[in-house]
Write a structure and sequence with these properties.
Blueprint (H helix, E strand, L loop, with lengths): L16 H17 L14 E5 L6 H12 L3 E5 L11 H14 L2 E4 L4 H11 L3 E3 L7 H6 L8 H17 L1
Parallel strand pairs: 1-2, 1-3, 3-4
Helix pairs in contact: 1-6, 2-6, 3-4
């Protein structure tokens, strides 16, 4: 069986195959620990994550928040355009990215262009994810490889947690 996953239009190129296996191993470990395991809630304690999206009630936003919070991280909602104007560009974008990088240990972007997410990632100095919790992200397909009777949503949450652990530890 090949380890490479199809590339998503909205994501960065997939990680090499060993990265996928390491993510699966970590997700399996979390799966075995169980949802209510106390130790899982401490793994990202003290980490602050930014969630850039229009609505906190969007299914992808809820999935990201659930995955991060279950590991003990704090998640703050950041509206991408609170004033209803155009996105910040140029020097303003660079300044915004640097401030976000000081405030957060990682940032999940949902609903922004891939170009804008990449610019934020270059300047923020922290991991910046492009629709990591999205149903079209390669991690969603990777979650299908997890064993057991967990729901597809729970398996996606476990893979998200594995990604967060690798990126933020």
């Amino acid at each position: 069986m090949r380890n490479a996953l199809p590339r998503s239009r909205s994501s960065s190129p997939p990680a090499p195959a060993p990265g996928f296996e390491a993510l699966l191993d970590t997700a399996r470990m979390l799966q075995r620990a169980g949802q209510g395991a106390e130790s899982s809630g401490l793994l990202l304690r003290g980490k602050n994550l930014g969630l850039v999206c229009e609505s906190e009630s969007d299914v992808d936003a809820l999935l990201f928040r659930s995955a991060a919070s279950a590991l003990g991280a704090s998640v703050s909602h950041i509206r991408p355009d609170p004033a209803g104007t155009r996105p910040v560009e140029g020097t303003g974008l660079l300044d915004t990215a640097r401030v976000l990088g000081r405030l957060y240990d990682g940032i999940e972007c949902q609903g922004l262009t891939t170009t804008l997410v990449r610019q934020l990632g270059r300047e923020a100095g922290v991991p910046v994810f492009d629709r990591l919790a999205g149903a079209n992200h390669p991690t969603a397909k990777l979650a299908q490889r997890l064993p057991g009777g967990d729901s597809p949503e729970k398996k996606r949450e476990l893979i998200l947690q594995a990604v967060l652990l690798f990126a933020l530890k």
